[in-house]
Design goal:
It comes from Flavobacterium qiangtangense. With 152 residues, the chain is mainly alpha-helical. The chain has one domain. The chain is 82% helix and 0% strand. The model has no long low-confidence stretch (mean pLDDT 87).
């Protein structure tokens, strides 16, 4: 026997308030995505410039120690990885905003559905990334506890 949920028997409608809220969300999401892309650009610039600064300081013997001896490569790689990781949630947020604005501009349900797909991807990425970071923090904490316990 098939059991259908209540949602299967009717189609949801957006009232004017919900449409207004979504339009405003799309505008703010677009603004935040533009700021995010600017931040990614700055991260890439910092990666290139700070990497070369550390490399130059290390070559000149400016007392940079091990960090200067690595030639700034580590700094460059870390910043580029950060920029790459930051790109995906910003991209998804931008695609959500662009599709949502388009959906309301031309009254297109398919664009609105696509925008929600990108919003889902944004939150899914952020959720998985948060789980990974919390796992790394727990692992570091456990390693610290084991190291401290073994030193007694």
């Amino acid at each position: 026997m098939d059991q259908n949920s209540t949602f299967d028997s009717f189609e949801m409608q957006l009232n004017d308030s919900a449409k207004g809220f979504l339009k405003e969300i799309a505008r703010w999401a677009y603004f935040l995505s533009i700021i995010g892309f600017i931040g990614i650009g700055l991260l890439v610039l910092f990666a290139l410039f700070f990497g070369s600064i550390f490399a130059t300081a290390g070559a000149m013997g400016g007392g940079m120690g091990a960090l200067g001896a690595m030639g700034g490569t580590l700094v460059t790689v870390i910043y580029l990885i950060m920029a790459a990781l930051y790109f995906f949630p910003v991209y998804y947020l931008n695609k959500f905003a662009t599709n949502a604005k388009e959906a309301f501009r031309v009254d297109d349900t398919q664009s609105l559905t696509k925008s929600f797909e990108y919003l889902k991807s944004h939150y899914k990425f952020m959720g998985i990334f948060t789980i990974v970071l919390i796992s790394i923090y727990l692992l570091i904490f456990l390693i610290g506890l084991i190291t401290a316990a073994s030193s007694f």
